[in-house]
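Exercise 7b. Backbone tokens:
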């Protein structure tokens, strides 16, 4: 039997950092929103071990791959001696702040748990996810969510009324940003490093209302401090989309993807048509309904 699963991505509508912790990670509050743009994963049982293949030759398929690590973690936690064969078809840009790799890891945990008849309970899947990365737990569920701690404590929220019918424009500039680099360089920006808690709850309340433009002012990402200093073009993208009528424009996660939110498809398509001759070059772009 082969099981096929879509593996989604995310944006952070808000990423407020509350200081550096003694373990080297950063305490944060973040509002994740799922994005319906997918990689695909297929799973089947095989002889011992994990055999991974991938559509993108740039991605290693050995034990350094997060899907490989997720599969090994699953088999060990579930006490399964059999092996698995996994194929990953990549569409989501990498080192993009879209959580593609984290989503792949979570989808692997969910897919293998389904393939082997649910040996792990939800709490065990969450424990496994937290060992794989800070964003992996979010992808074990499919709703917008508030995450705290280093990002692994996830509270599922209902769909936001203010975002109903809206569209994401996603722009990947053609270069990636390393997450450790972004966090290390945050040290030079004291206000961004030591944010005041409560911004996430404020944004959530606004998104539970009906006016996305009002909520747009509360979108925030502390990791823009180092990223926009090094890559000023990302600030120009945001300015451009706001001029084109976006309700919000922000970098997602540690970058390098910019997202803009439009309430109207025609306006979003027109904005992207104007973006391409101005900045297009090496960019990957997508319009994805919320
Ligand atoms: O957990 P994850 O593998 O996504 O983290 C990648 C890197 O990002 C960590 O090694 C750390 O440098 C940084 N990070 C952090 N604080 C967080 C999440 C990530 O410092 N809350």
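Sequence design result:
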């Amino acid at each position: 039997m082969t099981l096929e699963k879509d593996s989604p991505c995310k944006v952070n509508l808000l990423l407020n950092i509350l200081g550096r912790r003694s373990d080297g990670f950063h305490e944060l509050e973040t509002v994740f929103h799922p994005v319906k743009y997918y990689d695909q994963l297929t799973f089947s049982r095989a002889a011992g071990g994990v055999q991974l293949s991938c559509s993108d030759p740039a991605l290693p398929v050995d034990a350094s791959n997060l899907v490989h690590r997720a599969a090994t973690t699953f088999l060990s936690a579930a006490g399964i001696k059999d092996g698995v064969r996994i194929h990953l078809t990549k569409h989501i840009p990498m080192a993009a702040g879209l959580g593609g790799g984290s989503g792949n890891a979570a989808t692997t945990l969910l897919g293998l748990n389904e393939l082997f008849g649910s040996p792990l309970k939800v709490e065990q899947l969450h424990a496994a996810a937290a060992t794989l990365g800070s964003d992996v737990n979010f992808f074990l569920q499919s709703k917008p969510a508030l995450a705290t701690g280093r990002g692994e404590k996830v509270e599922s929220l209902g769909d936001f009324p203010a975002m109903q019918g809206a569209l994401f424009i996603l722009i990947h500039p053609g270069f990636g940003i390393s997450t450790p680099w972004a966090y290390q360089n945050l040290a030079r920006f004291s206000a961004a490093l030591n944010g005041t808690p409560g911004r996430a709850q404020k944004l959530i309340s606004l998104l539970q209302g009906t006016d996305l433009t009002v909520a747009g002012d509360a979108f925030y990402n502390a990791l823009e401090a180092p990223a926009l200093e090094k890559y000023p073009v990302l600030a120009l993208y945001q300015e451009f989309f706001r001029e084109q009528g976006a309700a919000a424009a922000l970098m997602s996660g540690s970058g390098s993807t910019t997202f803009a939110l439009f309430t109207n498809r025609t306006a979003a398509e027109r904005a992207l048509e104007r973006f391409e001759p101005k900045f297009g070059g090496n960019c990957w772009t997508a319009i994805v309904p919320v």
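Instructor comment: The chain has ten helices and eleven strands. The mean pLDDT is 97.
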